[in-house]
Amino acid sequence: MKWVKNIIDNLKPNFSKGGKFPWLHSTFDAFETFAFVPKTTTKTGAHFRDANDMKRTMFLVVIALVPALLVGTYNIGYQHFHSLDTSIGLFDNIWENLWFGIVKILPIVLISYIVGLGIEFAFAQWRGHEVNEGYLVTGMLIPLVMPPDVPLWQLTLAIIFAVIIGKEVFGGTGMNFLNPALLARAFLFFAFPSSMSGDKVWIAEKADAFSGATPLAEMMVGGHHPSLSFLDMVIGFMPGSIGETSVIAILLGGILLLITGIANWRIMLSVFLGGTFMGLIFNFFGSNSYTQLPFYYHFVMGGFMFGAVFMATDPVTASQTNRGKWIYGFLIGLMAVLIRVVNPAYPEGMMLSILLLNVFAPLIDYFVVDSNIRKRKKRWNLKGGENV
Amino acid sequence: MSNIITVKKGFDIKIIGEAENNILYPKVDSYAIKPQDYIGVIPKMMVKEGDRVKAGSPIFYAKHNERILFTSPVSGEVQSIKRGEKRVIEEVIIIPEQTQDYEDFGKDPLVSMNREDVVEKLLKSGLWTLIRKRPYSVITNPEKSPKCIIISGFDSSPLAPDYNFLLKGKAAQLQLGVDVLRKLTKGKIHVNVSYEKTTCDELLKIEGAQINKFKGPHPAGNISVQIANLDPINKGDSVWYIDAQDLAMIGHLFATGRVEMDKLIALVGNEVLNPKYYKLKSGASLTNILEGNTNKENHLRYISGTVLTGKAITKDGYLGAYDNLVSVIREGDYYEFLGWVLPGLKKFSLYRIFLSGFINLLPKQFRNPVDIDTNLHGGKRALVITGEFEKVLPLDIYPMQLIKACIIEDIDLMEELGIYEVDAEDFALCEVVDVSKTEIQEIIRNGLELMRKELGE
What we know:
The complex is a heterodimer of chains A (388) and B (457). Chain A has helices at 2-15, 25-35, 54-84, 94-127, 134-144, 152-166, 180-191, 193-196, 215-222, 230-235, 247-260, 265-285, 297-300, 304-311, 322-342, 350-383; one strand at residues 36-37. Chain A is an all-alpha fold and 388 residues long. Chain A has two domains: 2-35, no CATH class; 54-372. Chain A is globular, with a radius of gyration of 23 Å. The model of chain A has no long low-confidence stretch (mean pLDDT 87). Chain B is α/β, with parallel strands linked by helices and 457 residues long. The longest helix of chain B has 16 residues, at 440-455. Chains A and B meet through strand 1, helix 3 and helix 16 of A and strand 21, helix 11 and helix 12 of B.
């Protein structure tokens, strides 16, 4: 690969200080380090380091998202043709479904990456930093939490808002306290409620006659059990946000994240524990059809699974301590089910629940760390150190 | 009396190039005392270039306490006093003579000496500098007394020398050394050994001390981890510690009245042709043992100390004051095409994100030693990933929070989060696993230095 290296080395002076495009230095650096792991060596401290880096970590999360992306793409097409003619089966016109899905999703993915990375590159250059890889994941998460018919200009606004207000003003990746992908979704949800709710957005170019309600909407508006069976919802060819519908596809990614240890198993497990806890309480005291809905239905409806696997586990916005992670995850699951069942305005509780706990994560950590501090002080006082 | 303590967290990194039990006796052409090996010491010279010194003659004293002397390991001539930026003294070079001449520190029997006599003898001979204290890892204050003293009888870091081998035949010196330490404190003397590795009677049969056997992976050999399990440090406490080989030097001083800083060091690492043990004195030049003994084809990193915590030196460098080993590994100054995408069968990683990471799930004895180099494997980033430091830090401390407290220089918070209980070396594994490539040891060291300067020892 010497020739690639030579090309890069020849181009490099143009982007350094005194070259033609010094304002593109961070951008150039991002592409150079993308192609070649740099030859930087350790200077102080441990003389060797783990081969893992931010690029690989983030890249792996993107890979984990691929099953959900593929199923989501196919589902866009299938839902569209299915709404036109309900007699069409799942595998009746595979290529048309796929093609329709690709045509729909490609602009969303492209806009997500171009707008988001553009802002990231600009801020990195402005700060004189290397470009952080965090947006590689965010840029893939955003399309997957969007409804297939999201207007592209609204999407663009949402991304600009999420990346600048949600992340860059706090100092960029690692400093933000709200999950940027969910923030983009929440922005759309509250800024353009008409195009983010109701029945018409969940199926791309839906035929008007077709209902197209998501299982959550059926529960909330109709007050009756979802028309799909539990198994159908696990497989996930139903209306909904692009990546959230298929439990199987999400779990494939989740398994990869757990095996590699990228996602924290404590958070993932405790989200389900929290959801189970709240669901069981409702089941026990249940008085209407939503409270009586078996608790495990919550896991396969709406964004619960996607949120638990990919959103709650975002290390930047989650609690940082291990004990905090248990509490954080548990409360996300609990709040998600609570909002879904009790709140009359929003059919989906997962997004709001995660954003809420994002805000509370530092507080949870504060109490966890504070108990450590108090334990230490107690020990000092017992043993009677000199200056206490 | 022995006490078994299990350390659960941490990791034993097996690296190619462990020393085989075989001793060589190289000729050494020069010695150096490096003031920067001693934290917080500003040297005040007591000799000039060209002066003749004996083994045990003072070379300089510490500005903060003029009783703390630093003495020559050999008799010979002070060849040069090397200064660096701002005229800071970096090395005092001494050329040894053919026949060695020793300062006489007397052979008074220990029983007839009181604490002050013992302290005075240690200070005069320069061996006081071998005893350090926590917090801060500085040379101890002779006017004070610790709550306990720890003798470090094993090293759990990668490629560490085998203490059974280092201490062979030094039973009498070690016992006498322990008796000397007993004069310094009313508290306990702890001899800390490895449950798995320590087999030698030299350590296990020491009397007048508590033997503690530590079971578990690195950093079980770190002083902080041991103190945390034996008698945690509270604000205002001080715990003293000394390496077992250094203790034998103290024993030797009280037996013979001479300063003989002989020690065995291991020359290790994947770029060493014949990793073996060498008999040297403290501060010895490493030129002769490195020459012709390392791989010539690669750029090399020479380290006095372990690959986790040692100091980089040049090929004609000198052994660090507290070091028992010299490690040589490959410099990682190469570009790797799409290196972050490859499956990584041969890469060193504790993450199961590389195929090689799965090997780490196996018990230590089934893992093959890995090949390492100094490549950083990525660029510096903000601290993003959480929960990884906790896996390799067996202390009741929140590492991420403490690191951040050190970065923002919040002294109160650092204190509350337990800075007194740690040393930079405890964070070496955190630094290795850190995806953001942060210089964590440096951050902690700076934090400790800030505390020491603001609050005093």
